[in-house]
Amino acid sequence: MKNWHGLHVLILGAARQGLALARYLSEQGAHVSLNDRQTDEQLERAKSSLADLPITWITGGHPLTALDGIQQVFLSGGVPVENPIVRHAQELGIPVSNDTQVFMETVSAPVIGITGSAGKTTTTTLVGRMAKAAAGASRSAWIGGNIGNPLIADVSKIQPSDLVVMEVSSFQLEQMTISPAIGAVLNITPNHLDRHGTMEAYTAAKARILEFQSSKDIAILNRDDAGSSALIPICKGHIATFGMHQGNGMGGQTFISNHRVFYSDRKAVVLLLDIADIQLRGNHNLMNVLAACSIAMAAGWDPTAIREGIINFTGVPHRLQFVRDFRGAKWYNDSIATAPERSMAAIRSFSEPIILLAGGRDKDLPWQDFARLAHERVTHMILFGEAAPKIKTALESCSIGSNIQTLEVCSGLAQAVEKAAGYARPGFVVLLSPGGTSFDEFLDFEKRGEEFTKWVQLLS
């Protein structure tokens, strides 16, 4: 374990990751400076949460002078490496890291790490439920990372025999030089190109979850996804896979046959559960279940624990979350869909006529495939936020044979909800599945989903 005592460190970003790391490093004896572009007033709650520690706050911007005397810099997930203060730190030869790297260097238990362009939150939650069932009374299961609690906050409590499940984003992986014992790449499709610039750079970031594994470690890959399966050549250890249909050879695998989920390896074929036991909607969620089963079997957990983690699980908040019936239509919150691919998966989950609310802030991603599917499956399209003009242009470029009856552009989500209510009819689905981030109007996708839910509940 690294000795942090007396080290002068700078943490960029005072969101949950930065706050958790600041507390950990300060309690380890480091001299911590915490820098955020928000003002003191905006950070009042964050500052209050660390008031018991001798932390230096630098607010209202990222001045280069914040690096004076600093020996190591840590980035929160929302701080890009292109930020001038980060670039300057690198020019000065100051090491740059993040809370996930510190956690991986410190934790005493083996870690399961899960990443992917889509589905990682649902899959991590599923694996976490399985881990809790597998842990029993003699050990604990810890679930967090890019979702829930930053695991650095609990690293001192984790015992060597405990189970650790961590969601890891491409932003976190950029600085990491250590890989989990079991690393899963669910899929790689266009996402976060506003941050990474190119698909090559984005893919390279995702691949780092496997890049530093040893021959004893396990990589979990998606047979049905070209981006995930293309990482096979970089794998140093064992490989397990998941996919809709049974594959050929190559380690353990999960698949579907006769409406049931199976796991097979060179030793046996194991029935895990019936498809009817899965309460999640859509083929994309079926893939998440297959991924979770593959991860759990690679970890050596009993099939009983796997079934217990899946049965009665209805999904994570803000992912195809049912809100209410209003005017005979069913309203769903899919605010977590921050890329066109995720919105497309949501659209495919319904056979009913769809009133779709899409927009937010674009991530420099292509919308053409989304537009084509929307013309096939959406009855009323309501756009909002900064991305609305770009989505509208994509829709207008391929409108021949469209089923879209109306196309509305709104200034924000509240107005979009009102417009959707006007089109709601019995048998329809009203779906918030933005395809863009929330940062043009809300703090994060959770806040966007909460506000959508509130506004829908107030409809009368």
Write the layout of secondary structure elements.
Layout lengths: L7 E5 L3 H12 L3 E6 L7 H6 L6 E4 L12 E4 L8 H8 L4 E2 L1 H8 L4 E5 L4 H16 L5 E5 L17 E5 L2 H4 L8 E4 L7 H4 L2 H13 L6 E5 L3 H4 L8 E5 L10 E5 L2 E5 L4 E6 L8 H16 L4 H8 L10 E6 L2 E5 L6 H8 L6 E6 L8 H10 E7 L3 H9 L9 E5 L2 H11 L5 E7 L9 H14 L2
Parallel strand pairs: 1-2, 1-4, 2-3, 4-5, 6-8, 6-9, 7-8, 9-10, 10-11, 11-12, 16-20, 17-18, 17-20, 18-19
Antiparallel strand pairs: 12-13, 13-14, 15-16
Describe the model.
With 460 residues, this protein is of the alpha/beta class. It has 3 domains: 8-97, NAD(P)-binding Rossmann-like Domain (Rossmann fold, 3-Layer(aba) Sandwich); 108-310, Mur-like, catalytic domain (UDP-N-acetylmuramoyl-L-alanine:D-glutamate ligase); 321-458, Protein-Tyrosine Phosphatase, Chain A (Alpha-Beta Complex). Helices cover 33% and strands 22% of the residues. It is built from 16 helices and 20 strands. The strands form 3 sheets. The chain has a 9-stranded mixed β-sheet, sandwiched between helices. Strands 15-16-20-17-18-19 form a 6-stranded mixed β-sheet, with helices on both faces. A 5-stranded parallel β-sheet has the order 3-2-1-4-5. α5 (120-135) packs across α10 (283-298), α5 (120-135) packs across α11 (303-310) and α13 crosses α14 (388-396). It is globular. The N and C termini lie far apart (58 Å).
